[in-house]
Every structure is written in C-alpha cells, then in structure tokens.
C-alpha cells in the first residue's frame, strides 16, 4: 500500500514541480548543459557584467532544471551572493574577482539532504551546473551593497543560517530554510540593521510577499515521503516560498535594489 502511495506521489510530482528553491550541489550529478570552456566563458561574462555596473555585491540566480520543467512563474532554483573580493589562487597569487556565497543542502552521504550548510565557492562552480543559458540578477542599491559586504561571511551572517532544510520553506517561519530564504533573511538583517532573528521574521511577515507554489492535496501529503527535502509542515495554508521573483519584487518595492535583470549567455 505504501509503495503504491509513493509511486503515486512520484507520478504526481513532475520534474521540477517543487524546485522553486532547490539549492545544493545535487545538480552537479546531472548531465552538464555546458562544456567546461563554455561554463568558464559564461562565468566570466557574468563577472564582467557585474563589474561594469560597479557591483561590490550582487544576488545571482541560476536554474539546475530547464525552465519548462519549473512551475509557472518560477524561473530559477538557486541563488547566491556574489561579492567582489581579493581572491587567493592555489598558487598564492592575489586577484580581484567575485567570491560566491551559497547555502547548499546535504549530499545524503556526508550530510543528510534535509540539512544544509554554507559554502563559499567561485563563479565557475556556479555557472557549470546551470541548465539554461541565462541567470537572473538583483543589484542592491549602493548602500545595501555596503551593508551586505560588511555582513556576509561574518559570525552574524552564519547565525542567520537554519540547518533544517526544505525545498519550499516558508520564509515567514523560522522552522526550515532554503537558499533564497537565507538570502532574504540576510537582506532583511542588512536592511533593518538587526541581528534579531525574531525581529527579522516579524518584519518580513509584514512587508514580504512570498511566491505561491501550486500543490494538490496528494502532492502535499505524499510528496514528503517521496523526497525528504520536501517538508511542508511549516505552511499553515497554501505553499508559499521565497523565489527570485518575490525577492526581487520586495527589494525593488522597498528601494533596496536598483534593478533586476537577466543575463543571457553570449553564444
């Protein structure tokens, strides 16, 4: 009986249906969309675009699934902070470039997939697992860039991390977190200049409008059995989560960002 129920859940959950906030290295196991030289060129293109805009901090999104496999109104599955920094290479050289600050879920081996961790890597890591030829960008205002650069990578930044992970975590609730909710919490901490997590969530409950993800009764009930990353008990009603679309709308509306745009890979 339970095997039949799980099969029904997997059939009712089309690929990417719950991937509005997938964050993790699991995408690296998929067939690469780019060759290594293409991924390197795309990463450099994104860096050059951000540098041309004078971005010290930008929020960049990719998708590890094709756009047509994602729910309507959701374009990307993972986002990260890109911070202009001095980077030390393996051979000891010091270069100017972007460091990428992520929240990833566990790989199921060294860490359960229902848990997450913070990791700093680089633009090539980010671009190489994209499943599409575009990324979404949110460019914070100069003042927000200043505040974010001061915060990112510090103990205060780390304290905003909730290790319990859900693909569709409720951004108005502190029970679970995914990559976009984590970035939203960091943005909120910088915007309101507070390290109080209860205050951050109280402010977001008043000012942030999450994205609604359509889910039928069987999907919501049986989905967690099919994928342990899919936990929905933090949602009292409809499934509402943070996405590129809702984060960019929030930041633009409240003058925390100057623009949100898409970079298409040069062919």
TrEMBL record:
Keyword vocabulary terms for this entry: Signal
Signal peptide coordinates: 1-19
Name assigned to this protein: Uncharacterized conserved protein UCP028477
Annotated source species: Asticcacaulis excentricus (strain ATCC 15261 / DSM 4724 / KCTC 12464 / NCIMB 9791 / VKM B-1370 / CB 48)
């Amino acid at each position: 009986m339970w095997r039949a129920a799980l099969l029904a859940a997997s059939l009712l959950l089309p690929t990417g249906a719950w991937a509005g906030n997938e964050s993790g290295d699991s995408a690296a196991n998929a067939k690469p969309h780019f060759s290594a030289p293409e991924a390197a060129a795309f990463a450099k293109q994104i860096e050059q675009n951000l540098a041309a805009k004078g971005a010290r901090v930008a929020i960049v999104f990719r998708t590890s699934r094709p756009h047509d496999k994602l729910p309507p109104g959701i374009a990307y599955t993972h986002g990260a902070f890109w911070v202009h920094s001095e980077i030390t290479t393996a051979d000891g050289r010091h270069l100017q470039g972007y460091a990428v600050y992520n929240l990833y879920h566990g790989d199921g081996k060294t860490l359960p997939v229902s848990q997450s961790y913070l990791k700093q890597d680089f633009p090539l890591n980010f671009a190489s697992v994209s499943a599409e030829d575009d990324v979404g960008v949110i460019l914070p205002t100069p003042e927000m860039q200043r505040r974010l650069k001061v915060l990112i990578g510090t103990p205060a930044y780390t304290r905003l991390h909730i290790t319990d992970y859900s693909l569709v975590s409720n951004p108005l609730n502190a029970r679970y977190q995914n990559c976009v909710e984590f970035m939203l919490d960091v943005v909120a901490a910088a915007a309101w200049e507070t390290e109080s997590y209860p205050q951050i969530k109280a402010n977001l409950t008043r000012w942030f409008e999450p994205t609604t993800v359509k889910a039928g009764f069987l999907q919501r009930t049986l989905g967690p059995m099919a994928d342990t990353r899919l936990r929905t008990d933090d949602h009292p009603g409809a499934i509402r989560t943070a996405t590129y679309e809702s984060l960019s709308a929030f930041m633009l509306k409240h003058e925390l960002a100057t623009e949100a745009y898409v970079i298409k890979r040069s062919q």
